[in-house]
Amino acid sequence: MSALPDDFIREIEAVVGAVGMVCDAERMQSYLSDWRNAYRGEAALVVRPASTEEVAAVVRLCNQYEIALVPQGGNTGLCGGSIPDASGTQVVLSLTRMTGIREVDTENETITVEAGAILQTVQEAAAEVGRLFPLSLGAEGSCTVGGNLATNAGGTAVLRYGNMRDLTLGLEVVLPDGQIWNGLRGLRKDNTGYDLKHLFIGSEGTLGIITAAVLKLYPAVRSVTTAWVALPSAHAAVQLIGIIRGLCGDRLTGFELMSRLSVDFVLRHVGACSDPFTETHPWYVLIELSDTQPDAPLNELLEQGLGGALERGLVTDAVLASSEAQVAALWAMREGISEAQNHEGPSLKHDISVPVSCIPAFIQTTDQRLLDQFAGVRIVAYGHVGDGNLHYNVSKPVGSDDTAFKAQQDAIMHVIYEATTRFQGSISAEHGLGQAKRAAAKHYKDPLELALMRAIKTTLDPKGLMNPGKVL
Ligand code: FAD
Ligand code: MLT
Ligand code: ZN
Questions:
Q1: pLDDT of 311-343, one tens digit each?
Q2: Roughly what angle, to the nearest 10 degrees, separates helices 409-422 and 359-373?
Q3: What is the C-alpha to C-alpha distance for residues 330 and 210, in angstroms, rounded to an integer?
């Protein structure tokens, strides 16, 4: 029997029709757990509105009947933000029917898209008019623009183009009482008071439902060079990024760090990946340079930078991709780490950030502490080193008991977050707090910042119906 009042269900059906509702338990399953199966919940109903007006009407009804809502996009988030709680009383509001590209304005260099549009579709729409939409991440074939906005997603091109916050000019949002805020302005300058869009970007569905956005476009890239580089240490990676950036400036678009264990996992579990080198090395970086000019001398620039670094002992080996297939193969090694780690049993995922200069010391001291206290744990460190953002993940010791490892979860997390705090870092650089890091945020975030966040939440959502149990 549904936990929802019959009148509510009837009124929802009048708004979205039967096609916009998922009621039966079997069809609901894919909305109730994440792809890693790390979080699972129950829902009274999944609603799939097809327009902003329908979203607004659904939200108004939830407000009237005091029913909690969980916004959901592609459900690729990594901290349980889009998964309902276990009560079976919440309604999942899926944006996946709102996939429209509303406008492409090549003179204003903007694209206006609905929240359920898949990121890759937006990249393709930009490419069709000779432009680039630069947000790029492993889940781009299934995550949505709404989810990217709600988590302020980062990815592999932040170094050059910034994160989702930097790529957004305007938003359309359905507020918790059902009002529609039309902030779909394509302005690069607007100083008429508080910049409200930034409240909703990164709010993980706790302040309203994002229904559309005006995003920035950039000139299409016409030359790309990609290299796979072996290094003796993480410190060498930090020094190398300085050298390459000094030489190439904004042409440096990707600089991804990977430990040997991360690469081992991919080689073991992701089909068709092979090690570009015959010898193993402790660390690797994947470097991407790009330019809007065709035939830009990127290989020469990169060879110059790597050659100098080789002489200084910062680089031990390097290979430049010589075909599109090789470029794809190198990126597959990097993007495959998440999936590969899943095959190695339970793991704790982290997306911490510290100042770039502190990355080597962070890794050294945290590795030491973890290995001293939790014998055999496997540290799978990789990520967007140019942003100071590491996926400092921990997989269970080989052959150990899953439950025993999970019981150590909080203690392991504590060691990592204490170190992050010591280096004046953040416990979440890109995935958000969701339900995974909600308790930790209470401990590690500044109390005044938390109080201000609570005040904003109460003002916008006094009944606490927007994604309760997440973030705050
Ligand atoms: P969901 O998972 O559905 O939701 C995420 C959060 O946003 C939830 O709190 C949800 O309630 C809220 N939300 C969703 N849509 C809306 C909306 N319209 N209005 C309000 N709230 C909403 N992230 C990075 O930042 N960088 C990476 O490099 C990266 N790599 C990834 C690689 C893989 C293989 C995977 C699986 C994930 C990766 N992620 C990465 C995680 C990332 O957060 C998501 O992939 C993406 O941004 C989430 O989009 P989504 O549509 O799947 O959102
Ligand atoms: C990535 O950069 O690959 C994802 O953000 C990290 C992850 O899956 O942990
Ligand atoms: Zn990442």
A1: 999 999 999 999 999 999 999 999 999 999 999
A2: 150
A3: 35
**Would you say the CB of residue 349 lies under 6 angstroms from ligand 2?**
yes
Of 132, 105, 101, the C-alpha closest to 117 is: 101
293, 430, 409, 274: which is closest to 353 by C-alpha? 430
How many A from CA of 114 to the centre of ligand 1? Answer: 15
Judge whether residue 159 has pLDDT over 90.
yes
Q: Tell me the pTM.
A: 0.97
- Ligand 1: which residues within 6 Å by Cβ? 35, 70-78, 81-82, 95, 115, 137-139, 143-144, 146-148, 150-151, 153-155, 204-205, 209-210, 338, 430-431, 434, 467, 470
Please check whether residue 196 is in contact with residue 168, taking contact to mean a CB–CB distance below 8 angstroms: no
> Tell me, what's the pLDDT at 2?
73
- The pair of structure tokens assigned to 342 is 């899943």
pLDDT at 383 over 60: yes
Q: Which atom of ligand 2 is nearest to the CA of 337?
A: 3
Share of the chain above pLDDT 70, in %: 100
425-455 per-position pLDDT tens digit: 999 999 999 999 999 999 999 999 999 999 9
Q: Over 70: is that where the pLDDT of 1 sits?
A: no
338: CA distance to ligand 2 center in Å? 6
pLDDT band at residue 255 using 50, 70 and 90 as cut-offs: very high
pLDDT band at 125 (very low <50, low <70, confident <90, very high): very high
Average pLDDT over residues 70-79: 97
Average pLDDT along the chain: 97
CA of 7 to the centre of ligand 3 (A): 43
